[in-house]
Specification:
It is a single chain. By secondary structure, this protein is of the alpha/beta class. It has one domain: NAD(P)-binding Rossmann-like Domain (Rossmann fold, 3-Layer(aba) Sandwich). It contains eleven helices and eight strands. Strands 3-2-1-4-5-6-7-8 form an eight-stranded mixed beta sheet, with helices on both faces. Helix 2 runs parallel beside helix 9. The radius of gyration is 22 Å and the shape is globular. The structure holds NADP nicotinamide-adenine-dinucleotide phosphate. The site of NADP nicotinamide-adenine-dinucleotide phosphate has 26 residues, from helix 2 and helix 5. NADP nicotinamide-adenine-dinucleotide phosphate binds next to helix 2 and helix 5.
């Protein structure tokens, strides 16, 4: 190697090493920040945005308020939601679906399945990277042909197409809303089957499942969400052991 080449190589090393150092420090900070925010979400009181404040949305929202979380309810009727939250104390708010999506660390989407395509477009980028609980069921008699297509695809995977770039956990799909409304006070310890692909989302949603009075029971990836529907073997109230046994036979 000539002297000039040696000098050039030395020069490159001088530039390169600090660059590696900086990259290392930056990635260390990013990973510390991600760990810190994951820990915050896993232990602190959460802000929950509810889209669809009907039977399921209101039952779960009330349970989460009782557990100490802050909840923004939304639907297509803001005035009704304002009147509803006026009865629920200072941790309950009302907003539009977009405001609820902005507000929530975690979102519960509990609307008729047929509303998902237009809702996804309406919410657009506000739901990007959000943890979304998908309680929605495609029911052909209510939602029409799109529900048949969603059932063919699998309810969880279809929901993720309508709500793109979100961290979906499918759960609360096949227990009647009236039962959900009282689960936290009854301590019956039924399992709540869940399906999802994102580890952090599963961790956070598990907390909310527990706060709603159920024992979180992961049955698999989001593709398994096709089994989380009324009328399937996993539907209704089961112990965790029963759910695991049923799920194992579905795979
Ligand atoms: N009921 C149950 O026992 C149960 C149990 C598990 C899962 N599910 C599933 O959960 C979902 C909700 O069921 P639900 O019984 O709670 O229904 P629901 O009582 O009819 O409530 C539906 C809610 O969605 C809102 N909504 C409809 N279209 C909307 C849109 N485009 N944007 C924003 N909000 C919209 C409605 O508000 P507006 O009145 O303003 O339209 C209403 O607040 C369904 O997919 C259902 O299959 C139901």
């Amino acid at each position: 190697m000539s002297k000039t080449q040696r000098n050039q190589s030395h020069h490159h090393r001088c530039l390169f090493l600090p660059l590696i150092g900086l990259t290392f420090i930056a990635s260390l900070f990013v990973s510390m920040w991600l760990t810190a925010s994951a820990q915050t979400l896993a232990s602190e009181k959460l802000k929950i945005g509810i889209i669809g404040s009907g039977r399921v949305g209101s039952a779960l929202g009330k349970a989460w308020l009782t557990a100490g979380h802050q909840v923004m309810f939304s639907s297509q009727h803001l005035e009704d939601d304002k009147a509803f939250v006026a009865t629920l104390g200072p941790n309950a708010l009302a907003g539009t679906p977009t405001e609820a999506a902005q507000y929530g660390d975690v979102l519960l989407v509990a609307v008729p399945y047929g509303a998902l395509p237009s809702l996804g477009k309406e919410l657009g980028n506000t739901i990007k990277d959000k943890i979304v609980i998908d309680a929605c069921n495609p029911i052909v008699t209510r939602d029409g042909e799109m529900a048949a297509a969603a059932r063919d695809k699998g309810a969880g995977l279809a929901s993720s197409e309508f709500l793109p770039n979100t961290r979906i956990v499918r759960t609360f799909n096949a227990i009647p809303a009236a039962k959900m409304a009282e689960a936290a006070t009854k301590q019956a310890n039924f399992g709540m089957p869940m399906a999802g692909d994102d580890a952090l989302a599963i961790q956070i949603v598990s907390r909310l499942v527990r706060d709603a009075g159920y024992e979180p029971t992961l049955i698999g990836k989001l593709a398994m969400g096709k089994y989380l529907l009324p009328g399937t073997p996993l539907a209704g109230e089961h112990s965790v052991e029963e759910l695991r046994k049923i799920a194992a036979e579905l795979k």
